[in-house]
Amino acid sequence: GIQVEQSPPDLILQEGANSTLRCNFSDSVNNLQWFHQNPWGQLINLFYIPSGTKQNGRLSATTVATERYSLLYISSSQTTDSGVYFCAVRNQGGKLIFGQGTELSVKP
Amino acid sequence: EAQVTQNPRYLITVTGKKLTVTCSQNMNHEYMSWYRQDPGLGLRQIYYSMNVEVTDKGDVPEGYKVSRKEKRNFPLILESPSPNQTSLYFCASALGTGGGTEAFFGQGTRLTVV
Q1: pLDDT tens digit sequence for A9-63
Q2: Residue B100 to residue A30, Cβ atoms within 8 A
Q3: Most buried residue among A23, A47, A95, B62 by CB atoms closer than 10 A?
Q4: Closest residue of A to B45, CA-based?
């Protein structure tokens, strides 16, 4: 089945710093998503990005489907950005295959 | 507002007492599914439904039941909860199973079985 790997597993930033999170996937997919799990456990949709680049405020994402990776950029990080960031792809049956997540901690 | 709504958000119950976690979506999505999230094990699919009256087992279906009588609702039923079902549960929906369909999650239900 599809494998999804994220790096780094943990990241500690000072407020205001920038960061790049990476997601590699093993098979051709056309439905990659990025989620943020906040400290209360909620999974928030960040991007649906099968290919190309999207931006939403301080966050942007790029997926290069032909090379099977996606990047999530966080600029000018804030303490509210803390939490776990997941990428996920859906297999042919519709099941979401998640990476193990990147746990981000932004210090004031 | 397009959303997936789960209830309750938090639940503490005792072993063996039947419970139902409700899930409702207002996006006319055909595909709905349940996941549980546990430390070190990530998110695992419990059951899914391709459409009304069509449900199937995911990776960890033991101890759970589901039904899909209406398109918008997909309740998760624990007939006789046990402590190993203590977990964070998520309901998700999507337009279909193919490419080009974004999945949306409910707020999560934190269940503790004592």
Answers
A1: 999 999 999 999 999 999 888 899 999 999 999 999 999 999 999 999 999 999 9
A2: yes
A3: A23
A4: A95
Tell which residue, A51, A47, A56, A46, has the closest CA to residue A25. Answer: A51
Q: Do A95 and B103 touch (CB under 8 A)?
A: no
Instruction: Give CA–CA dist A54/B110, Å, rounded.
Output: 32
Q: Which residues of B3-28 are buried (b: 16+ CB within 10 A; e: fewer)?
A: ebebeeeebebeeeeebebebbbeee
Q: What is the pLDDT of residues B100-113, one digit of tens each?
A: 689 999 999 999 99
**In this structure, how many other beta carbons lie within 10 angstroms of the beta carbon of residue B60?**
18
A79: helix, strand or coil: helix
Alpha carbon distance B103, B30 (integer Å) = 11
What does the DSSP assignment read for B9-38? SEEEE-TT--EEEEEEESS--SEEEEEEEE
C-alpha B91/C-alpha B78 separation (Å) is 15
| Chain B residue numbers touching A29 (CB-CB < 8 A) | 99
Neighbours of B88 (CB within 10 A): 18
The CA distances from residue B55 to A1, A20, B67, in Å, are: 21, 39, 7
CB contact under 8 A, B101 and A92: no
